Amino acid sequence: MGELDREVTPPEVYFNRRSFLRAGIVAATTAGTALAYRRLNGVELQSVERPPIPNLTRPAAPGFIAQGEALTPKDSIVNYNNFYEFTTNKDGVAAAAAGFDTTGWRVEVGGLCAKPRVLDLDDLRRVSPPEERIYRMRCVEAWSMVIPWVGYSLGKLLALVEPLGSAKYVAFQTLFDPSRMPNQKTDAVLDWPYVEGLRLDEAMHPLAILATGLYGQELPPQDGAPVRLVVPWKYGFKGIKSIVKITLVDKEPPTTWNKSAPDEYGFYANVNPNHDHPRWSQATEQRIGESGRRKTLMFNGYGDQVASLYAGMDLDVHF
Fold first, then answer.
1. CA distance 6 to 30
2. Comparing C-alpha atoms, which of 302, 176, 289 is closest to residue 230?
3. Is the dihedral of CA 230, 235, 240, 246 positive or negative?
4. How many Cα atoms are found within 13 Å in the side-chain-facing hemisphere of 4?
5. Residue 226: is the preceding peptide bond cis (ω within 30°)?
6. Sign of the CA dihedral 114, 120, 121, 125?
7. In terms of C-beta density within 10 A (0-12 exposed, 13-18 middle, 19 or more buried), how is residue 30 classed?
8. What is the C-alpha separation between 103 and 163, in angstroms, rounded?
9. Residue 21 CA: distances (Å) to CA of 15, 95, 171, 316
10. Where are the beta strands (DSSP E) in 42-182?
11. pLDDT over 70 at 28, yes or no
12. 243-249 and 169-174 beta bridge pairing
């Protein structure tokens, strides 16, 4: 079994297996799995406290709040995730990223725009008041969460730099610093730095946000501190973390996972239960904290807001 195959172990199996090792459980039942999961969340997993973000608002625009959804526990969000710059072990990211220093962080916003600029974190915070957005998050690996992000629409930042008419796409880049991100010392994991991209109309959609926090606090390192992208109708790998560069371009930009495995990870990566990953079904998902699986929703349930962006496109081809 290869490294990527290990990384897509279904979460209910993953948590159950680790529970056997840590707690000596010898029989796996639905109740036992749930009990083990609660034990991991309540006792063994790291608790992460970050500075609170003041003056949060909760706008009620369509799609901004996932109605009828229970929030995924904070301890799960900060302890079960992918951030390969630090480690490929989902439950090891918090420890590997502990102490990650974002002092002096800058984000360069440029390319095909009239007013390029470099912003520090205070500049980024002044772009718009912080908003809490409660979004479903669907990983391409067929597990999901419901996360109360803090941020604002990416389009507000892009409007400040005034995109030119020739700008058709937005490219993003993660920090490249092997001294702070240890897995960047080898290209055996991925081709660094991590890069992502959106079409400009996708990036300008109000649901696409720059997130600087979750659960009312500043982002912890393992979740993409100090600023990351969140696009709730797309698979989670589109949500590039620890952003240092945003560039307006005229051609579709390269993206890390598409370069690594183009037959498995498309540029658009819209959540589509009818288009399976070559190695597993996308029809259902494991919601972290729940027993059993649930059906995956087209566009992760945001079709009313975003389906018009893809009118006339074959979503099984443009995946």
1. 22
2. 302
3. negative
4. 14
5. yes
6. negative
7. exposed
8. 29
9. 10, 19, 42, 40
10. 106-111, 117-120, 131-138, 143-153, 169-174
11. no
12. antiparallel
How many angstroms separate the CA atoms of 206 and 107, rounded? Answer: 20
Supply the pLDDT for residue 60.
Answer: 87
Domain at 47-310, CATH from 2.60.40.1930, 3.40.50.1370, 1.10.287.370, 3.90.420.10: 3.90.420.10
The full length of the chain comes to 319
Q: Where in the chain is the domain with CATH 3.90.420.10?
A: 47-310
Measured between alpha carbons, how far is 244 from 226 in angstroms, rounded to an integer?
Answer: 10
Tokens of 97: 């990223």
- Integer angstrom CA distances of residue 99 from 48, 96, 103, 220, 308: 12, 9, 11, 10, 42
Between strands 243-249 and 106-111, the pairing is parallel
pTM reported for the whole predicted model: 0.88
Q: What are the tens digits of pLDDT across the range 282-305?
A: 999 999 999 999 999 999 999 999
